[in-house]
Amino acid sequence: MESRLLNGVQVYAPATRQELINYALNNHSLLVAVNAEKVLHATDQTRDIINRNLGYPDGIGAVMGLKKKGLDQVIKIPGCELWLDIIRTQMKDKRFYLIGAKDEVIEETVLKLRSEFPGINIVNYRNGYLKQGERELLLADIVQKKPDVVFVAMGSPRQELLMEEMSNCHSALYQGLGGSFDLYTG
Ligand code: UDP
């Protein structure tokens, strides 16, 4: 999959959602949504985080930037839909772990997923408010449960920093979701 630098931010250019999903699964990537805001107002920290990982165009501004740089086939992929596509296409043989949002939101998210995707293998989940000492417990649990896919909905850059820590302990596809659990449970 090709990529280009937009204001120093590396953004990949998938032609289909499946191309991005397969690439991320095969490479144990950390998926980071990139929009015009993140490109135009990139700080050194956000730029470094995106460039260490797999930035994909989550907004039309990023798509237009890539097209201007010659990548005509690229499509916009909203992160709040991508995680559900990953579940839909991969749920038969994958283990999922969910982290983020408040207790009632993550609990409702898991209930809704189990009803919408019967048979989904959610190996564990927790809220996104880690108290002192809980980070270490979470890392140990990730290593023990060995998920294939980890969704983290805690806002940026909090979720990306946690994903990087987890991926140093256990390889998987990680996706940062922002407020997607809140959106999903409406
Ligand atoms: N959140 C969390 N832990 C925190 C702070 C926020 O889990 O320490 C959750 C919050 O409950 C909400 C989401 O992160 O579900 C916030 O998403 P936001 O829309 O701010 O993220 P963005 O999409 O803007 O990155």
From TrEMBL:
Keywords, sorted A to Z: Glycosyltransferase, Transferase
Domain of life: Bacteria
Keyword Transferase: yes
Naturally occurring in which organism (per UniProt): Seongchinamella unica
Record has Ribonucleoprotein as a keyword: no
Official protein name in the record: Glycosyltransferase
Gene Ontology molecular function, alphabetical: hexosyltransferase activity
